[in-house]
Amino acid sequence: MDTLRLTAQVENPNSHPISVKAYIKRDTTVVDSMAFADDGLHGDGKTDDGLWGLTWRLPANEEMYSATVVTTDPVDKSVYSMPFSARFTTAGPIVFQHLSARKHSGDLVVFENPAVCNHGLTVVVPSVTGTLRKLEGDTVIDRVYNARITYGDIPPDSVIGTSRFYSLTLRSPADSIRLGVDLASDGFTYWTDTLTFYFPDAVADKHLSVIPIDFALHQNYPNPFNPSTTINYGLPNASEVRLAVYDLLGREVSVLVNGRKDAGVHEVRFDGSGLSSGVYLYRLTAGSFVQTRKMIVVR
Ligand SMILES: [Ca+2]
């Protein structure tokens, strides 16, 4: 992509000989300005239909830009300015480097260890978030949980991953799902895509070939839950493992795992039927690794 097309829908009820301009800014500095045309030749629909258009040759360097659209009416002597009418960037693109869906028992799909990549070569893209979105008209997905994950600033030519994960529930059984993905910087979505995920058969789902690099205790899901929830933890090598649930007074409520486990990602189901509503803690001890997380039982 080396040219940018901007269009603006402009109300001009008295058919005054107005002019419409765009000021392209980098931060607060104006780097260029151009006139829109309503002549049917600038990707603007028809002549004099109120849709104005222009094209702008994008510079080769990586930058974040905004456009301020200004209309000037020489008859009324009025000027209207709309800052940040559009935002666009030549930085990045930011794309998902790793995003794989795994179907769990029942209707739950989890996307573990997502990672995003900055394919740009010179500019740090600030405050990147990645969002999974149910597509318009989708009838398979019930609800997307943890739909937005923050990855932070992504240096050029770098991949940033996280131990957080996306999850969603299905409304009906499916062999594949389609999702919209939005990648944003500073809260503005610059990159968007539609991805399809296929699930291997149910037996294959049970055996994870992935060996984690680090010990990890993942957030249970669903959470809050009633009456049961699933906890995942990862071991980079075979370890003596203890996974137990505690109440807020530190009393042990349940021991879920106690013994030697192989390297890999393990899944444990926890049934909280006997527990009253409230916050509980679960703690993984594996060798010298200890991590505690919170979970919530609702009745
Ligand atoms: Ca037009």
Helix/strand layout:
Elements: E1 3-9, E2 19-26, E3 29-35, E4 51-57, E5 64-73, E6 78-89, E7 94-103, E8 108-118, E9 125-134, E10 141-145, E11 148-154, E12 158-161, E13 166-170, E14 176-185, E15 188-198, H1 202-206, E16 216-217, E17 228-235, E18 239-246, E19 252-261, E20 264-271, E21 278-286, E22 289-297
Antiparallel strand pairs: 1-4, 2-3, 2-5, 5-6, 7-8, 8-12, 8-13, 9-11, 9-14, 10-13, 14-15, 16-17, 17-20, 18-19, 18-21, 21-22
This protein binds calcium ion.
Taken together, the total number of domains comes to 3
What are the distinct ligands in this entry?
A: calcium ion
Number of strands: 22
Regions with little confidence, pLDDT below 50 for 5+ residues: 201-209
Any idea what the CATH architecture of the largest domain is? Sandwich
- What percentage of the residues does DSSP assign to strands (E)? over 45%
CATH superfamily of the largest domain: Immunoglobulins
Please give the share of residues in helix: under 10%
Radius of gyration: 26 Å
Shape type = elongated
Summarize model confidence as the mean pLDDT: 88
Instruction: Quote the CATH topology of the largest domain.
Output: Immunoglobulin-like
Q: Which CATH top level class of the largest domain fits?
A: Mainly Beta
N- to C-terminal distance: 54 Å
H/E element sequence: EEEEEEEEEEEEEEEHEEEEEEE
